[in-house]
């Protein structure tokens, strides 16, 4: 039988293919949910490869039907029930450092998002230079339903989306597909999943860190997907109208006013989702994304870290402890 250390080691598969570092998140049964070992290992590898002139780019992907379904919520439940809040704080400290390193990295990171990308999985990919989606990609930041808030730098990268789409995505936890991610800028390329192995082969032949050259390679496999007829992207006017309001109460009031003037199941479902979420989480994230617009990624992560430590200690709300 494999020793526990060996099992941990297998959670991130590390390969060198010519000048490319290829990293595979490898907990497929848990949808590659991030353990403390995984965030520590990713931080260590990214750190080491930054100074390694033989590594020109990093490819990050997931084994199985997910890229990554977020932080390991099973482990969180153990910590939350009677554990020491500092274990959670150490997890987030390491994870946010990894997010920061990815956001400021000197070499291109190509994330292959061929499946579920949620919470911490978004943090491990959105800060990198290239985010490749497919027809199988499902993206969401589901934290407001869990008594947390969209973190891992979401107050930075969601606040950079056009209009108030970031507010919509972060507050409601709405799921986006690959075409929607490309349309709003969360993804840089759409590549059909059938072409991913050829794409990876080409990326592994790259001898440079020049993003223009890497981009041109991915372009060769890319397609322009069509948005579905019922895509939320066609609702940008109402999203901007309602989610630009100053407070969570105003956003809800504005959606409810819209619902009164037209029968639209999307509006009522959105209202219901917001009402089921943690009110504290909604307010925290709205404030964060509004302030995040004017901050750098490092400052956003520092704010998020301070807030998550309060949540772990149950200072302002116990919603997180009710869910886990
Ligand atoms: C919509 C999903 C992604 C897929 O649904 P599905 O296709 O019906 O698949 P399953 O739900 O059956 O999931 C397959 C298996 O993967 C497991 N899994 C699926 N996500 C996970 C997962 N994040 N973790 C740990 N097992 C999982 C899930 O429990 C299940 O295990 P098992 O019942 O043993 O087969 C669904 O799994 C889902 O909602 N997952 C949770 C997504 C989520 O909330 N992510 C966490 C965001 S919050 C966050 O990152 C914070 C972390 C945190 C960290 C440290 C702290 O101290 C405090 C907080």
Structure write-up:
The protein has 324 residues and is an alpha/beta fold. The protein has a single domain (9-321), classed as 2-enoyl-CoA Hydratase, Chain A, domain 1. The protein is built from 16 helices and 10 strands. The chain has helices spanning 4-9, 36-50, 73-80, 85-103, 120-123, 154-157, 165-172, 178-184, 196-203, 211-221, 236-243, 248-261, 265-276, 279-292, 297-313, 319-323, and strands at residues 12-17, 20-25, 57-62, 66-68, 109-113, 116-118, 130-133, 138-140, 176-177, 189-190. The strands form 2 sheets. Strands 1-2-3-5-7-10 form a 6-stranded mixed beta sheet, sandwiched between helices. The chain has a 4-stranded mixed beta sheet with strand order 4-6-8-9. α4 (85-103) runs antiparallel to α15, α9 (196-203) packs antiparallel against α10 (211-221) and α12 (248-261) packs antiparallel against α13 (265-276). The longest helix is centred in the first third of the chain and has 19 residues, at 85-103. P-coumaroyl-CoA is lined by residues 30-31, 33, 69-74, 76, 79, 88, 91, 116, 118-120, 142-143, 146, 148.
